[in-house]
């Protein structure tokens, strides 16, 4: 799944007429990079949630044929459902096994090869070194398990694998993902890894410019 429903408030005015996933860097739309990564990793069916100017994304990507995948769209109306609610809403398309979820507004050279998860593991997160805009990080990693306290802290990359069971007890509607991950992590049910390669969170116009410069050289 690619998360592409956000409004992109911090990217305004760029996102007033163009959805954030279709902003361009290095000659491509941002969403094309994770889409191509997923295709290269062997994923064939990909769900994309859309909301703000979502029809532009649907028209741009189409069926997914040119990327070697089949795309399914979850149009979140009348309001975007946040990360947790958006994934929960898409569960009917995501199957009974663990599935990969990637934010549309990150750029990362992780190969997205699926991790080996035990049956007790409900999620696996890719962490990265803390960027300037998130200096205190999000999670710790101890013996391959995500921890909510202690250190050092790392930043969640926006790449994760989740089992449908992570969402047991959830109800349709708008809700965040982080509380679900923290509860599961406190039970030892979330594994993780640290990625030291290329990673950009395109959360501001300046970071979009920086990524574009890097990709052009």
SSE layout and pairings?
Blueprint: E1 2-3, E2 24-25, E3 28-29, H1 32-40, E4 45-50, H2 54-61, E5 70-75, H3 82-94, E6 99-103, E7 106-108, E8 123-128, E9 139-142, E10 145-147, E11 153-162, H4 178-186, E12 190-194, E13 199-201, H5 205-216
Parallel strand pairs: 1-4, 1-6, 4-5, 8-12
Antiparallel strand pairs: 2-3, 6-11, 7-13, 8-11, 9-10, 9-11
Q: How many beta strands in the DSSP annotation?
A: 13
How many structural domains can be distinguished in the coordinates? 1
Tell me the fraction of residues in β-strands, as a range: 25-35%
CATH topology: Spore Coat Polysaccharide Biosynthesis Protein SpsA, Chain A
The CATH architecture would be: Alpha-Beta Complex
Helix coverage percent: 10-25%
Number of helices: 5
The chain-level structural class is alpha/beta
End-to-end distance: 30 Å
Radius of gyration (CA) equals 17 Å
CATH structural class = Alpha Beta
Globular, elongated, flat, extended or rod-shaped: what is the shape? Answer: globular
- The helix/strand series, from N terminus to C terminus, equals EEEHEHEHEEEEEEHEEH
Enumerate the spans where pLDDT stays under 50 for 5 or more consecutive residues. none
The named CATH superfamily? Spore Coat Polysaccharide Biosynthesis Protein SpsA, Chain A
Mean pLDDT over all positions: 94
Task: Give a quick account of the main beta sheet: strands, pairing sense, barrel closure.
Answer: 9 strands, mixed
């Amino acid at each position: 799944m690619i998360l592409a429903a956000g409004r992109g408030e911090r990217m305004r005015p760029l996102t007033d007429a163009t959805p954030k996933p279709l902003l361009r860097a290095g000659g491509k739309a941002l969403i094309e990079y994770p889409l191509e990564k997923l295709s290269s990793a062997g994923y064939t069916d990909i769900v994309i949630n859309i909301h703000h100017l979502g029809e532009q994304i649907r028209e741009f990507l189409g069926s997914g044929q040119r990327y070697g995948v089949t795309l399914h769209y979850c149009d979140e109306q009348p309001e975007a459902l946040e990360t947790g609610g958006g994934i929960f809403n898409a569960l009917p398309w995501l199957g009974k096994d663990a599935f990969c979820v990637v934010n549309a507004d990150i750029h990362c050279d992780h190969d997205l090869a699926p991790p080996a998860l035990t049956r007790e593991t409900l999620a696996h997160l890719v962490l990265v070194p803390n960027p300037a805009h998130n200096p205190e990080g999000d999670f710790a990693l101890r013996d391959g398990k995500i921890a909510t306290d202690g250190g050092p802290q790392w930043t969640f990359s926006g790449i994760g694998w989740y089992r449908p069971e992570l969402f047991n007890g959830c109800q349709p509607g708008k809700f965040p993902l982080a509380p679900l991950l923290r509860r599961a992590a406190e039970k030892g049910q979330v594994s993780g890894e640290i990625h030291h390669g290329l990673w950009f969170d395109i959360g501001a116009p300046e970071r979009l410019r920086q990524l574009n410069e890097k990709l052009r050289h």
